C-alpha cells in the first residue's frame, strides 16, 4: 500500500514509540542499512526482525507488511486499538497490510496507542532474527539490514526481556526531508537522527560511592563528633533522553549514628561546575527497631548528565560502644524502590587507651583513689573532657550535655580504660591523690592514640613531656599494652632510670644548693670569720 508523505508519517510515529527512530539517508545498496542501539547494555542481545518493507517510490513510500508477520502485526494493532478509550478498529482495507495502518497513527494523541502496539508485537515461533548485536555498554550497531520497519527485541543473559522498540532503517532518497524527534516519555528525547534508538532495559544502576570527611577517614570518630558524609553516583546516560527519570537513593546508618535531616544534592558537570538538584524525602531519617536510621530520597534525573553528589551529616552517639566501637553507613540506588543495587558500605571506628595506676609497698600492684583529668591535645587546658562511667575503671567519652558526665576518671583497682576517642594526642593530669601519697609529684603525661580504620584496633604510646617520668611502658612503640603510672610518697621513690634519674639528681642538686646558700647567708650575718 502506497502512502503519500509516509516519511513524514513515520517521522511522526517516531515521536510516539518507545525507541523508534531512523538513520541518515544516502545511496545505500541492498542490505547496507543499519540501526544504532544507543546506551546498549553489556550482557544483552538486541535482535532485529523486519515486519514491513518500506520502498521509496517518487514522493511516496510503499508499505508492505511481510507475509510472515501479518498475523503478529494484526494482533498488535488490535491490542493497541482495544487499549483506547473509546476502543477503535482498523478499517478492513488494511486487513492484509496492517503495518500501513500503524503508519497512519501520527497524531499528538497517538503516543499511548504506539506504545501498546510496540509492546504487543510478538515474535512468532520459529521466526529467526534478521540480524543481532551484543550490547557493549555504549552504542552498538545492527548492520547489513534491508531497508524497512523492524521490531527490535532486548534479551539479557538470563533470558529477561526488555522493552520492545519499533525502528525504521534509512529510507534512501527521502530521509533528509524530515527530522526525527524521539518520545521523551520512553527515553527517546535525545533522538534527533534516523536509524537509532535508546535501549530501555537498563542494567542495574552502578554502585554509588560513599565517603566521609578527611578527619573521619584518617582519624576515626569520637563520641559526639559530627561526621560529614558524601554519596556520589554517575547519572545514567539514558537519563538525558527522558522527560521524567525517577531515581532513588537509600541511606542506612547503623546504631551509633544520629542522622541529621540536612541532606543536600548537586549535579556536578564534567568541568566541575555544580548546580543544585531538588529532591523529595520518600522517607525522612527514621530510626527502626534495630536502631538503624533509614533515609530515602527521590530525584528526577531527566535531561541530567554528570554526577549526582549528595551530602549530609550525622553525629556519633554513645551506642557506638555497644556496636563494638564501629559505626556503619550504607548507600544504595534504585529506579523504582523495589529492586536496589548492592549497597556500598563505609565504616568508621572509635578507640581508646588504658593505663595502670600503682604506688609503693602494698600498693605496688594497684593503687585506688587517684583521680585524673583528660585533655585533648598536648596541653593541660582549663576544660577537661567529660566521661560517663560504664563500670569501675571503664569510661567512655560523654555526649554533649549528657546527664551524669564527669571530668574525674578514677578506679578502685588501679586499672583505667578510656573509650570513645578518635586518633590523636591526649594529655592526662592527676588531680586527686590517694591518702598518704605526695601531692607535689604530679603525674602529667601525653598519650598518642592511633585507631586503625581498617581493623578498628587501638594502639598508643607515650609522647612528649612526662613529668618526673611517672608514666612509663617497657615498649616505647605503639601497642595496646597499658601505660604504667606511678605515685610516690617521697622524693626517694621517684623513678631512677634515664631522664628521670637525671630529674631526681637535679632535685637533689637543687636541695644541696639551697642548703649551701643558706649556710653562706648565715655566716655572712655572723662577725666570726669562717674557719678554713
Automatic annotation (TrEMBL):
UniProt keyword Transmembrane present: yes
Signal peptide residues on this chain, from the entry's feature table: 1-29
Top-rank taxon, per record: Bacteria
Keyword Transmembrane helix: yes
Domain SpaA-like prealbumin fold: 362-456
UniProt KW keywords: Cell wall, Membrane, Peptidoglycan-anchor, Secreted, Signal, Transmembrane, Transmembrane helix
Pfam families per UniProt: Gram_pos_anchor, SpaA
Gene Ontology biological-process annotations: carbohydrate metabolic process
Segments crossing the lipid bilayer: 496-521
InterPro entries: Fim_isopep_form_D2_dom (IPR026466), Ig-like_fold (IPR013783), LPXTG_anchor (IPR019931), SpaA_PFL_dom_1 (IPR041033)
Span of domain Gram-positive cocci surface proteins LPxTG: 487-527
Protein name: Isopeptide-forming domain-containing fimbrial protein
Amino acid at each position: 500500500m502506497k502512502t503519500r508523505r509516509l516519511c513524514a508519517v513515520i517521522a511522526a510515529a517516531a515521536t510516539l514509540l518507545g525507541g523508534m527512530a531512523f538513520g541518515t539517508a544516502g545511496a545505500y545498496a541492498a542490505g547496507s542499512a543499519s540501526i544504532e542501539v544507543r546506551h546498549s547494555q553489556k550482557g544483552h542481545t538486541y535482535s532485529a526482525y523486519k515486519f514491513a518493507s518500506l520502498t521509496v517510490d517518487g514522493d511516496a513510500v510503499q508499505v508492505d507488511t511481510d507475509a510472515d508477520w501479518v498475523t503478529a502485526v494484526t494482533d498488535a494493532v488490535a491490542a493497541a486499538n482495544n487499549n483506547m478509550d473509546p476502543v477503535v478498529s482498523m478499517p478492513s482495507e488494511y486487513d492484509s497490510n496492517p503495518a500501513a495502518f500503524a503508519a497512519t497513527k501520527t497524531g499528538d494523541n497517538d503516543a499511548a496507542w504506539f506504545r501498546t502496539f510496540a509492546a504487543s508485537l510478538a515474535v512468532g515461533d520459529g521466526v529467526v532474527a534478521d540480524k543481532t548485536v551484543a550490547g557493549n555498554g555504549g552504542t552498538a550497531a545492527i548492520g547489513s539490514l534491508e531497508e524497512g520497519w523492524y521490531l527490535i527485541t532486548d534479551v539479557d543473559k538470563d533470558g529477561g526481556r526488555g522493552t520492545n522498540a519499533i525502528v525504521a532503517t534509512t529510507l534512501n532518497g527521502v530521509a533528509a526531508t524530515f527530522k526525527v524527534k524521539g518520545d521523551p516519555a520512553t527515553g527517546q528525547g535525545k533522538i534527533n537522527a534516523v536509524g537509532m534508538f535508546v535501549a530501555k532495559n537498563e542494567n542495574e544502576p552502578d554502585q554509588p560511592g560513599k565517603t566521609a570527611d578527611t578527619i573521619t577517614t584518617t582519624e576515626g570518630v569520637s563520641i559526639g563528633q559530627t561526621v560529614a558524609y558524601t554519596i556520589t553516583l554517575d547519572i545514567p546516560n539514558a537519563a538525558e533522553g527522558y522527560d521524567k527519570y525517577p531515581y532513588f537513593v537509600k541511606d542506612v546508618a547503623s546504631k551509633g549514628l544520629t542522622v541529621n535531616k540536612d541532606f543536600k544534592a548537586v549535579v556536578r558537570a564534567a568541568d566541575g561546575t555544580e548546580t543544585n538538584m531538588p529532591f523529595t524525602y520518600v522517607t525522612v531519617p527514621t530510626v527502626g527497631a534495630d536502631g538503624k536510621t533509614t533515609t530515602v530520597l527521590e530525584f528526577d534525573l531527566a535531561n541530567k548528565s554528570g554526577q549526582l553528589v549528595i551530602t549530609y551529616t550525622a553525629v556519633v552517639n554513645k551506642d557506638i560502644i555497644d556496636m563494638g566501637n564501629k559505626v556503619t553507613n550504607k548507600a544504595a540506588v534504585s529506579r523504582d524502590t523495589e529492586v536496589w543495587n548492592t549497597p556500598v558500605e563505609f565504616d568508621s571506628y572509635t578507640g581508646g587507651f588504658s593505663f595502670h595506676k600503682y604506688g609503693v609497698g602494698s600498693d605496688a600492684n594497684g593503687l585506688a583513689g587517684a583521680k585524673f583529668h583528660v585533655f585533648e591535645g598536648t596541653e593541660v587546658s582549663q576544660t577537661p573532657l567529660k566521661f560517663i562511667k560504664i563500670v569501675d575503671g571503664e569510661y567512655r567519652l560523654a555526649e554533649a550535655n549528657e546527664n551524669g558526665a564527669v571530668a574525674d576518671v578514677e578506679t578502685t583497682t588501679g586499672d583505667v580504660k578510656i573509650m570513645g576517642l578518635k586518633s590523636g594526642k591526649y594529655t592526662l593530669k592527676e588531680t586527686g591523690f590517694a591518702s598518704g601519697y605526695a601531692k607535689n609529684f604530679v603525674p602529667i603525661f601525653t598519650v598518642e592514640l592511633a585507631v586503625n580504620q581498617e581493623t578498628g584496633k587501638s594502639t598508643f604510646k607515650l609522647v612528649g613531656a612526662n613529668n618526673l617520668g611517672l608514666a612509663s611502658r617497657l615498649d616505647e612503640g605503639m601497642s595496646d599494652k597499658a601505660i604504667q603510672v606511678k605515685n610516690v610518697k617521697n622524693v626517694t621513690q621517684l623513678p631512677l632510670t634515664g631522664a628521670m634519674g637525671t630529674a631526681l639528681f637535679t632535685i637533689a642538686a637543687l636541695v644541696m644548693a639551697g642548703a649551701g646558700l643558706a649556710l653562706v647567708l648565715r655566716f655572712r650575718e655572723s662577725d666570726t670569720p669562717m674557719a678554713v
